[in-house]
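pls read this stuff:
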Amino acid sequence: MSIQKISKNLRNKRGFTLVELMVVVVIIGILVAIAIPIYNGVQARAQESACFANQRIIDGSKQIFNMQTGGEQGTWPDDYFDDGALPTCPAAGTLSNTAPTDAGRVTCTAHAR
């Protein structure tokens, strides 16, 4: 093949048209518009599940504390949680009934049970 034929073939090759590129951009936009609400819903459900798990952990630790100490001795929560801190709600809710002498289950302001 001669250099003239190769250069002619290269000049005849064309890229995408503006319309084709716009169609791709629109399709990507539609996919993003569908995916973002789904992602947000999954994230909210994960935070709720983590909060409920934290509530169960605190409830169980309260029971263990009361069985071991009668609710009178020991340090709460230092002896029962890493770093001496209670688990928190990942959605910035406030947990109540977290003291070992509080009656009832732990509840959260952000996730009602």
The CA atoms of residues 21 and 27 lie 10 Å apart. The chain is about 55% helix and 5% strand.
